[in-house]
Structure formats: structure tokens, C-alpha cells
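Work Package 3 (structural annotation) set out to generate three-dimensional models for the target panel prioritized at the project kickoff. During this period the team completed the workflow that converts sequence records into C-alpha cells, so that structures can be stored uniformly alongside our sequence database. As a representative example, we reproduce one entry of 190 residues exactly as it appears in the project archive.
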Amino acid sequence: MNAFLPGKNISTLVSKKGNKATIRYLKREDLDNLTEYINKISAEDTYINFSGEKISKKEESEFLTNVFKDIKSGDRVVLAVFSNGKPIGVCEVNRDKKGKKRTWHRGVFGITIAKEFRREGIGEALTRKTIKEAAKRIKGLKMIILNVYGKNLKAQNLYKKIGFKECGRLKKGLLYKGKYIDDIKMYKEL
């Protein structure tokens, strides 16, 4: 396994709408842009855990510190896609340590894409690259798991296209914009 290099480029792409972008690892210099990005996504109150909370630069700095520590230890991969020097998507696979060693073969997946760059193929490209990197860098990884909002049909269809399968559904398991909706669990074996 290669040593972690902050900022290392993984690939470049041109989206369906002609936007040029680079998929790469994060680096400390991304802090201001990442703080702005996550706050924009949070304010949107979309299909993610953040729902309007404002993330401080200090909190985002602590997040980055933990990301770098986890990547160096071989427990996490976090890639971002940048267009014109700004983050337009972030994706990660984190070793599942909740069950101690019993769940270390699982990686927990998460992704966000900026609203103005959705439906351009960027999320699919970022997802595939992140899973490929995770399979290389997280020793013993055998499976990726994720949770998806029951109303988020576009994401569900993308995950199925990539090879994820539904394995559980908690009816009314999430509060989303004042209504309870299903929380769906999916998995993909590597």
C-alpha cells in the first residue's frame, strides 16, 4: 500500500454538462473551501444528516485532522471532487469499528454532491473511485454498507447500478422536513 499523500490526484473527468473536475484526496489547504461547502450543503437540508447546522472552521479543522489520522492508519478513505478549485463533492468509506473487530471488514459509505452539479455523472464517478481506493487502502475490507433516505430514489437507483443491494428498511426511521420516512440500508460485497 502506498503512503497517504494529501492532495494526491486520483483522476480527472468531464461531466455530462461539460464541467471539468478533478477527484483527489483532501489537503489541509482545503479547510476554508470545505467549511464553506459543508455549510452550503447543510443549509440546503437535503438527504444527509446535516439539516441546517452551521459548522465552524474549528469543527471542520478537527474533522480534517481526524480524516488524515484515519487515512494514515488505513481505516478511512475520503476523496473530494473539485471544479475550478472548489469542492463540489465529498465521498468517504470509513472502517466500521462499532462492533470492534467483528465489523472491521465493513466500510461505511457516505457522499455529498453540490446541488448545481447533481445529475451530471459526478456522483457516480466519485463513488466508484472512492470504493476502488477503499478496497486498496483499507486492509481486510470485504463489504461497503450505506444508509439512504427512502424518498431519495435517484440515490437508490445509482447505488443499485453500482452493485449495492437493499438489505433492510426501517419504516419511518428518519425525520425529514417534518415527516417520518424510511431509512434504507444497502450493501455491496467487494
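The chain has a mean pLDDT of 94.
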